[in-house]
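Aim 2, interim progress. The first record below pairs a target sequence with its structure tokens.
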Amino acid sequence: MNSPDEIEPEEVFDVVDEHDNVLRQAPRSVVHAERLLHRAVSIFVMNSSGRILIQKRSATKDEFPLCYTSSASGHLSAGETYAEAAPRELEEETGLTSPLEFLAQFPASEDMAREHTALYRTVTNETPRLDPEEIESGEYLTLE
């Protein structure tokens, strides 16, 4: 862990084209400021009762603060695959480790925050430990 005086290095993302081919790498701040296409994962956590964990994003998030979203989500680091990023993001944001099932991939668009996004699902009755830097709150809701 870094001391309070150390600055954490900025995340670096793969910049991709409309077909999800890697063009180059760039820091997170540049990718977002220039609205470049990049990659993300989103995970739905379900429990055995069929309820889905929905999170309210932290107020400190640089995009969509205090908005409701999937159980866990995040960007792919440069060189990382969707299949590598999904379990990492699930554990970082919820403390959960559970087998993931790939559901679908969505192309980047304005509605998708200019992110090519792979969607995964898992079913677990483990109690999540939500990361307060990432998530304001979370609750299990019925699909209705």
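The second target in this work package is listed in the same format:
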Amino acid sequence: MTEPVRLMRRRQPAEAAVTDASLALFRLGEQCNNRCPMCSNSGRPEAFFQGEAELLRRADLLADRGFRRVVLTGGEPTIHPAFWAVVQRLGERGVAWDINTHGRSFADPAFTERALLGGLRRAIVSLHSHRPEAARVISGFSHGAFEETVAGLDQLVRAGAWLMINCVLTTHNLDVADYLRFCAARFGSEPRYKLVFPSTGGKGGDWEGIQLRLNDVRGPVAQARAVAAELGLRLAFESLPNCVLDDPSADDTSRSGFGETHYLDDLDGERLYPIRAIEAALSAFPDSCRGCRALPRCPGVAESYLRRHGASELTPFR
């Protein structure tokens, strides 16, 4: 039986001022044409879809509150019937946009061109394996969708878009060194690459593929870092404590690490929450991490993980 763990949390203000540098997470709904068994969305029916008029109102609200940049996300934002209307409204209000996407819509060259002409700044695209069969299991999509995601990445690379390729670690894709070799050969060294320790907090939290321990990923991540250094790739991490990375200086590229500062409530479309406060509420540190020299930059661990597995896998830097 795991011994009870005494936990510490970061304290973050419940409010954050909007400045010229602020970046809001703007969710268009949880609708998606992938069926990821590990989906981290809530699964709440009322969060599934918002109509065009409501999304345009939210775009205006963000502009009125001083945001000059947003991240469009979902579900899958590009399949929303109001996607281009939202993009147009953001442009009219002088608001630039990034996107978090599975990338399939970008397989159409005309879609990619229109997005870049319409103000797209950065794209985070999820590709969870270089092996089609593993990618299909992880993302729950039909035959052909893996090929669409890869083709979408091809188009974004060809168009010169700022690109981050996102890979959530599962029991099905720990061959991440081979994954990076595939990506480097296909997409080059210009994109950023990110490895993510999975969250079990969403509707797909019980899926067997993400029942990983931190120790399960130490070796694969170390191999990935060696390959990235060999190939000159920029490799980022999310939700991986510094001691698991064996690097006290590594930064976590979570939402706040990507630059997001605020989250627009996806139900009422009114309230804004500081991203750092949300992250602080969802992560924790065992008392044994007190005094660790990596603590100021470490993302911590999900409280549910520490309650279930304890803190024996964490080795603070002294």
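The two ends are 28 Å apart (CA to CA). This observation will shape the mutagenesis plan for the next reporting period.
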